[in-house]
Design brief:
Distance between the termini: 35 Å
Number of domains: 1
Strand content: 15-25%
Largest sheet: 7 strands, mixed
CATH architecture: Alpha-Beta Complex
Helix content: 25-40%
Strand order of the largest sheet: 5-4-1-6-8-7-9
CATH superfamily: Spore Coat Polysaccharide Biosynthesis Protein SpsA, Chain A
Shape: globular
Number of strands: 9
Oligomer: single chain
Order of helices and strands: EEEHEHEHEHEEHHEH
CATH topology: Spore Coat Polysaccharide Biosynthesis Protein SpsA, Chain A
Number of helices: 7
Length: 200
């Protein structure tokens, strides 16, 4: 039996209100934060890759070297939920999708692979860090419609996940799930190196 096909979905559309600029364009690891996040999905074995852009989309396209399919979310200001709907609609044939947000640079390819190992059409799994849920999140194809319908505002997949059994996958030994909501948080992660999570 063939291994499940696992797509990668990167949510990189936000305007970064607290951050002061679109996070996708923030410098990180010698490039841009969006490039680092996309490489994490590629190096984690995801194929195909879909990257949802919004704020600063034209500049991201001009400056970033990105794999896969780039799609625009015209409603990016409504929050992550709209980007999740746009992204799931663009994924195409796959058994499951690994979802990553652009502002979690401590997530490593090893964490993506650990989550992807649970892939199936019915899978629901998410990384945890010392018991706290985080990214990446794995969603099997049979759940995509329900996740898209429940996604609203900045909540993303959370409303759907709270109503269904989810496999929690500890990843603190191989990754750092910190959200870089402000520039000083990103600077701390950058100072530790692009693969800081792997040294935890």
């Amino acid at each position: 039996m063939a291994a499940p096909k696992v797509a990668g979905l990167l949510l990189a559309a936000g305007g970064g209100r607290r951050f002061g600029m679109p996070k996708a364009l923030a410098p990180y690891g010698g490039g841009l934060l969006v490039e680092h996040a996309a490489r994490t999905l590629v190096d984690g074995g995801c194929e195909p890759i879909v990257i949802v852009l919004g704020a600063g989309a034209d500049e991201v396209r001009h400056r970033a070297d990105l794999p896969g399919t780039l799609v625009d979310n015209p409603d990016w200001a409504d929050g992550m939920g709209s980007s999740l709907r746009v992204g799931l609609a663009a994924v195409g044939p796959a058994d499951a999708v690994v979802i990553l947000t652009v502002d979690t640079p401590g997530v490593t390819p090893a964490a993506v692979r650990r989550i992807s190992a649970l892939a199936s059409a019915d899978a629901l799994a998410r990384a945890t860090y010392d018991g706290v849920p985080g990214h990446p999140v794995l969603i099997g194809r049979s759940h995509w419609r329900g996740v898209a319908a429940a996604a609203d505002g900045d909540t993303g997949a959370r409303p759907y996940l709270t109503r269904h059994p989810v496999t929690e996958v500890p990843c603190a030994d191989i990754a750092d799930g910190t959200d870089a909501d402000r520039p000083d948080e990103l600077r701390r992660l950058n100072a530790r190196g692009p693969d800081a999570g792997a040294s935890r």
